């Protein structure tokens, strides 16, 4: 997958910015507040329909503007047709298009432009709650298993209906939703477990090449081992009725990240944590490529922060080794001078303006 061009209107400081990004590796540099992270944010918007920095569109739109627009052209393979994608957001509406035709959902954008993103907030994958780790796994599985999104939607629809009946005390109708919930939850569990097993094999390889204690994922499905979900829903029916919600199921799943068998957040420094996250991102990228035949676009914000130059080279080698198109941001481009080759495209951003800047690595 390759993003070949990008046009950004009214995304934070980027009032009217264009980027021709035909290279596999693209380095974007500039001072803090220049707009370089907003370029990654715009690409993320184009690939997911949302920002990675704010849930409120009004906070992303340039002050004084009514809407933002991000448009781009993508090519799935070197000889495939060029596709056009676009998204327009106001504070209350979203419109998305592909090849000039309106799309109904952001998942269609995600299918057209798969992206994986690493930012400072990604550290919450290590020290945050389980929801953020479930979300990463589920986003990856959307690209890995064609039917996964529908299974997830059906499981959560049944869960929502079951919880509503629990809150209202309408217990006579719960069995209908129990049956649907169990079927789709167990399908989700099977897919999640298989993906986690493969991710762990990839993580073992990447950990060794980065001199890290072995990074691994400890997957817990969200209900007690050795019992079926149907049995547990029956066993815990009184508890669920008293609490008014469902206490067992895939919505309670956990994917713990460990280093050498211990919780990663407890044993790694901030710098090591960034290496762990780079390894995790690379493993997810490889899984998507293996299962879908398409390599996602990687968006990596300020990789060099909190890393020494040796660690930067290791992390960069791991990420670029995936052969995914990669967009990197930095304050100091010289940090990357000996870590990337002449084919890298370099851009300088200042006050929301983008220009080619190959000489920065000289």
Q: What brief labels describe this structure?
A:
Rossmann fold, single chain, 2 domains, six-stranded mixed sheet, alpha/beta, 362 residues
What's the topology here?
Elements: E1 2-9, E2 17-20, E3 25-29, H1 36-48, H2 57-60, E4 68-75, E5 82-89, E6 94-98, E7 101-102, H3 106-112, E8 115-118, H4 124-127, H5 130-144, H6 148-168, H7 174-209, E9 215-220, H8 229-235, H9 237-243, E10 254-259, E11 262-263, H10 264-267, H11 270-292, E12 297-300, H12 309-320, E13 326-330, E14 345-350, E15 353-356
Parallel strand pairs: 3-13, 3-14, 8-12, 12-13
Antiparallel strand pairs: 1-2, 1-4, 4-5, 5-6, 6-7, 9-10, 10-11, 14-15
Helix pairs in contact: 5-11, 6-7, 7-11, 11-12
Describe the structure.
The chain has 362 residues and is of the alpha/beta class. It folds into two domains: 1-114 and 294-362, P-loop containing nucleotide triphosphate hydrolases (Rossmann fold), CATH 3.40.50.300; 126-293, RecF/RecN/SMC, N-terminal domain (Glutathione S-transferase Yfyf (Class Pi), Chain A, domain 2, Up-down Bundle). It has twelve helices and 15 strands. It has a six-stranded antiparallel sheet, covered by helices on one side. It has a six-stranded mixed sheet with strand order 8-12-13-3-14-15, sandwiched between helices. Strand 6 (94-98) and strand 7 (101-102) form a beta hairpin. Helix 7 packs across helix 11 (270-292). The longest helix has 36 residues, at 174-209. It is globular. The model has no long low-confidence stretch (mean pLDDT 94).
